[in-house]
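Open question from group meeting: does this chain pack into something compact, or does most of it stay loose? Before anyone orders reagents, we agreed to write out a predicted structure and look at it together. Recording both the input and the output here so the notebook holds the full record.
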Amino acid sequence: MSIQRPHVWIDKQSDQTLLLLHGTGADENDLIQLGELISPNSNLLSPRGTVSENGMNRFFERTPQGEFVQSSVLDAVTELTEFIEAAAEQYGFDRTNLSACGFSNGANAALAVLMINPEVLNLVVAFGATKPLNQPVAVDLNGKLVFIANGDVDPYAPVAITEGFVAELKACGAEVELLTHPGGHQISSAHIQQINSHLT
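C-alpha cells returned:
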C-alpha cells in the first residue's frame, strides 16, 4: 500500500534513519539540508504536517492564544507512528534504529512521540522546542538521548518550562543535553556542529 501523506525518502542504504519534522509553514523539503548536516550517513524520512493553520503546514493545532491543543498533539503522535510503520514497510528501513530531528512545531511533535510512544525513537534532536503535552512524563526513557537546542529569548520556548521538562525527562531515565544560544526562535549553526560531533 502506497503512503498517501506527502513525504521525502532519501535512501542511504544505512541501518540508521533520521525522521525530519518541519516547523510551521514549511514542508517535507525544508529540513533535508539540516538532516544531512546532523547525520550525513543516515537515511532521511521527512513527512509533511497534515494540519493547516491559515494555509501553513503544521503537525498539530494551537489556539489563537498560542496554546497547544492537547487532543491534536495526541492525534499527531498517532498519525506519525502510523506513518513510520507504513514507511518502514514500504522502504525497508530498520525500525529499531530511528531518530528524529525537528524544528519548532516539528520538534514538539517529535518530543510528544517520545512522551507517548517512546519505543518508536532512540534519539530526538529538538530545535526551538518546549514541552508539548500538559501531562507529566511517565514512561521509561532509559537509553534515550535527547538534545534540546533553544534560544535564551525564544518566546515559543520559555526557559522555565524547558528546564522543568528537561528535569522530567531525566527523571524518567533519558540522557538530555540542553543547548542554548543568545538568540530567539532559530537554529544555531554552533548547535548543529555540537550535535553532529555527538552523532558521528
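Observations to bring back to the group:
The chain has a mean pLDDT of 96.
The CA atoms of residues 23 and 105 lie 5 Å apart.
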